[in-house]
Amino acid sequence: QVRLVEAGGGLVQAGGSLRLSCAASGITFTMNTMGWYRQAPGKERELVARISRGGTIAYADSVKGRFTISRDNALRTVYLQMDSLKPEDTAVYYCSSADVIGHNYWGQGTQVTVSS
């Protein structure tokens, strides 16, 4: 059974930092692209960042220079370091895992709230 368990969300003031983590089980972690998405109220889910099995990274333009995605294959965990947070970063953040045949898995989400 695939499980993606996020942690690290919370309430922070604008300009602050948070670090999200996502622990994976039930997947071949080293073969999968791992990613973070977010969904704000009334908006569609959007890609924040992703990191391929080979370490290729992509970021949404809105978070470039502020967020950093990384993965630890030994711990089967992907991280999202979020610095210089803005109120518009407020959303539910979801961990995702995409395997080589196109299956996509999701975590339950973690709330990030940035106050102004």
Give the helix/strand layout.
Layout: E1 3-7, E2 10-13, E3 18-25, E4 33-39, E5 46-51, E6 57-59, E7 67-72, E8 77-82, E9 91-98, E10 104-106, E11 110-115
Description of the structure:
The protein is mainly β and 116 residues long. The protein has strands at 3-7, 10-13, 18-25, 33-39, 46-51, 57-59, 67-72, 77-82, 91-98, 104-106, 110-115. Strands 2, 4, 5, 6, 9, 10 and 11 form a seven-stranded mixed β-sheet that branches. It has a four-stranded antiparallel β-sheet with strand order 1-3-8-7, with no helix packed on it. Strand 4 (33-39) and strand 5 (46-51) form a beta hairpin. The model has no long low-confidence stretch (mean pLDDT 96).
Produce a short descriptive summary:
Helices cover 0% and strands 53% of the residues. It contains no helices and eleven strands.
Range of helix content? under 10%
Query: What's the count of strands?
Result: 11
What Rg, in angstroms, do the CA atoms define? 13 Å
Largest sheet: 7 strands, mixed
Structural class assignment: mainly beta
Count of individual helical segments:
0
N-to-C CA distance: 40 Å
Provide the low-confidence segments as ranges: none
Beta-strand portion reads over 45%
Order of helices and strands: EEEEEEEEEEE
Coarse morphology: globular
Average pLDDT figure:
96
What attributes does this structure have?
116 residues, mainly beta, 7-stranded mixed β-sheet, 4-stranded antiparallel β-sheet, 11 strands, 53% strand, globular
